[in-house]
Structure formats: structure tokens, C-alpha cells
Amino acid sequence: MVKNVFVVVIGLLLMALTYAWWQAYTPARALLIGTFEECVAAGNPVMETYPPQCRTPDGRLFVSSMELPQYAE
Fold it and tell me: Is 71 inside a domain boundary?
């Protein structure tokens, strides 16, 4: 019985440490994003607007630098 409790406590401790590590390092990775392309590559959502926009978890917004079509005059 004591062995089962020990295993459960160790498992919960490992899960808590993993969650704390993930929370500590996730925002740091988001700060490395500086362009629309990097935002998309990081797996952040792209809004279906014109031009397309990508938002990071910390709220920064990046807009695609799509070129407008050139029409002959």
C-alpha cells in the first residue's frame, strides 16, 4: 500500500514539474517571433482576413506582407 502511494506522489510531482517547466519556457519562445512567417511557423492561428494576420499567445499581431496585384492600365 505504501508503495502505491509513493508511486502516485512521484507521478503527481513529475506532472507538476513538467507543467511548471512548460509554463516557464512557452512565453520565452513566443518572444523569438518577429515576423508573420515566423508566427505561422510557430503554429499560431492565422486569421482569414485580407491581408492574413497571425496572433501570438502574448497578444502580438503580425500582418502578412502580401503584394497587391498589378493591373495593366
Answer: no
Is the pTM higher than 0.70? The answer reads no
Domain count, the chain: 1
Q: 50 is in which domain, residue-wise?
A: 2-63
Half-sphere exposure of 9 (CA within 13 A, CB side): 6
Report d(CA 42, CA 56) in Å as an integer: 9
Q: In the beta sheet, which residues pair with residue 61? A: 55
Average pLDDT of span 60-65: 90
Distance CA 4, CA 35 (A): 50
Peptide bond into 27 cis (omega under 30): no
Strands of the sheet with 46-47, listed across from one edge: 46-47, 53-55, 61-63
